């Protein structure tokens, strides 16, 4: 929803939303439309009433990017890729002619376990640098003198309780007090608000500033009814993402930078795919791989066997596995046996709670069957299976086991932030869940007491970047389990 405060804004916003509809083409969800003042307040009761003329409503898609990212990696593995997690590139190797022929890497999990032999070299005909905001750090391993091409931009988001927004209607302000766009949307049962856009330094776990958090709160207060007082204490989580914007030499600030991607090849053969966004990820991948094939004369071979893309029944993408690009046919793992009513089958078969069953099918597709099967009995009359990690959210114990056994999860943060979204939804709830997650992973990965303590310390430190109160740093597991915080 785009609130309209003056009658003359209607044609302007109407033209914008209709242009959006046109660009969506056949992939559009529904057509945009205008709501008069009374209807706008019915659709978004929290909206400020004074100076409201009406609203334009348009449709956009949303996704769970952590699950999307993991599904991409798992689909690649099904088609023959070797996927590794927590492997750091420390250097690039070259032959006598100065052409790249491999990379030096360090196994960070071996290091966490106290092992000393975690470094080795991987040989390669082609190296593709697709590392987002870390693009330039890899390019400088190839040539320390190169100019940077990525202008990192910080985008801060905050999470509020779900009651601050309707379940199926969000709000966007295309013209805030300083000209930036801000959104206020339902997300994963909560409300997400953001975002900022300012130059930043590249760090592993960026921490959102109080200034940015308060700016977002101030902006959304201006659109909500006066009796709805959004407070700083309402913020359940806050984080800062780093956008890998492609640098434009003529741009004076990051707001004018675009997220279009570019592909370049260095003199030594390093192929860099930089910039871009989720909506063009398949195009980016296709162009990058095509360029790699061209540069080193690769000859894609046919896989030995058609992969089992579905975990339940026999499905086919009708992909022609002859070495040509098939991205337009290949669906991600979990999509083949998915249906909007699949959650009912899970409830009937496993006795899952309804919100849990819906969450599993939306997050794992047809792989939800295996996740549910890995869940423990609850020892209750209902639900029969699925021990919740947190009473506030539908994440269950089977997801932790599945993440370790099927999705390469190696740390507690992998589960809390990169397989589930709990850390991004509620930092305090993630802290309270941490003991159970560590114990479940310890059973799967045979962690000793020292490794479990390492996971505790690192996870609490990570949760600081998710908005956990700084006073919690150094809190012990015993205190959390006793509720002393």
Automatic annotation (TrEMBL):
Pfam families: DAO, DAO_C
Domain Alpha-glycerophosphate oxidase C-terminal: 325-452
One GO BP annotation of this record: glycerol-3-phosphate metabolic process
GO molecular function: glycerol-3-phosphate dehydrogenase (quinone) activity; metal ion binding
Keyword flag Flavoprotein: yes
Location of this chain's protein in the cell: Mitochondrion
E.C. number(s) listed in UniProt: 1.1.5.3
Gene Ontology cellular-component annotations: mitochondrion
Top-rank taxon, per record: Eukaryota
Keywords attached to this entry: Calcium, FAD, Flavoprotein, Metal-binding, Mitochondrion, Oxidoreductase, Repeat, Transit peptide
Family stated for the protein in its record: Belongs to the FAD-dependent glycerol-3-phosphate dehydrogenase family.
Name of the protein this chain belongs to: glycerol-3-phosphate dehydrogenase
Protein species of origin: Trichophyton verrucosum (strain HKI 0517)
């Amino acid at each position: 929803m785009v609130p309209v405060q003056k009658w003359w804004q209607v044609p302007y916003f109407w033209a914008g939303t209709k242009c959006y509809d046109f660009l969506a083409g056949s992939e559009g969800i529904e057509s945009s439309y205008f709501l008069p003042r009374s209807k706008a307040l019915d659709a978004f009761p929290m909206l400020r009433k004074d100076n409201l003329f009406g609203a334009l409503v348009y449709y956009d898609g949303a996704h769970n990017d952590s699950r999307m990212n993991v599904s991409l990696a798992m689909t690649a593995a099904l088609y023959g890729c070797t996927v590794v997690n927590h492997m750091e590139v420390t250097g690039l190797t070259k032959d006598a002619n100065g052409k790249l022929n491999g990379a030096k890497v360090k196994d960070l999990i071996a290091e966490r376990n106290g092992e000393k032999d975690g470094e080795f070299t991987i040989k390669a005909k082609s190296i593709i640098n697709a590392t987002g905001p870390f693009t330039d750090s890899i390019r400088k391993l190839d040539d320390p003198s190169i100019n940077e091409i990525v202008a990192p931009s910080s985008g801060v988001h905050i999470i509020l309780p779900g009651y601050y927004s309707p379940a199926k209607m969000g709000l966007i302000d295309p013209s805030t007090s300083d000209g930036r766009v801000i959104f206020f949307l339902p997300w994963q049962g909560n409300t997400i608000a953001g975002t900022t856009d300012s130059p930043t330094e590249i760090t592993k776990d960026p921490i959102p500033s109080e200034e940015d958090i308060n700016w977002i709160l101030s902006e959304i207060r201006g659109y909500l009814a006066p009796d709805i007082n959004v407070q700083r204490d309402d913020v359940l989580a806050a984080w800062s993402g780093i956008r890998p914007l492609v640098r434009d030499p003529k741009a004076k600030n990051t707001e004018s930078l675009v997220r279009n991607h570019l592909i370049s090849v260095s003199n030594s053969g390093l192929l860099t795919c930089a910039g871009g966004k989720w909506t063009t990820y398949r195009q980016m991948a296709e162009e990058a791989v095509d360029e790699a094939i061209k540069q080193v004369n690769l000859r894609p071979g046919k896989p030995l066997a058609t992969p089992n893309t579905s975990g339940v029944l026999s499905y086919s993408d009708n992909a022609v596995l002859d070495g040509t690009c098939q991205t337009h046919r290949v669906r991600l793992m979990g999509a083949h046996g998915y249906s909007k009513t699949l959650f009912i089958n899970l409830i009937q078969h496993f006795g899952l709670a309804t919100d849990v069953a819906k969450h599993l099918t939306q997050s794992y597709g047809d792989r939800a069957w295996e996740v549910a099967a890995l869940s423990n009995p609850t020892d209750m009359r209902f639900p029969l299976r699925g021990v919740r990690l947190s009473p506030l959210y539908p994440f269950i114990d089977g997801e932790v086991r599945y993440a370790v056994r099927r999705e390469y999860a190696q740390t507690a943060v992998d589960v809390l932030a990169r397989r589930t979204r709990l850390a991004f939804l509620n930092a305090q709830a993630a802290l309270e869940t941490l003991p159970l997650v560590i114990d479940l992973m310890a059973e799967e990965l045979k962690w000793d007491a020292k490794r479990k303590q390492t996971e505790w310390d690192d996870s609490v430190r990570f949760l600081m970047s998710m908005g956990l109160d700084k006073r919690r740093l150094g809190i012990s597991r015993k205190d959390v389990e006793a509720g002393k915080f």
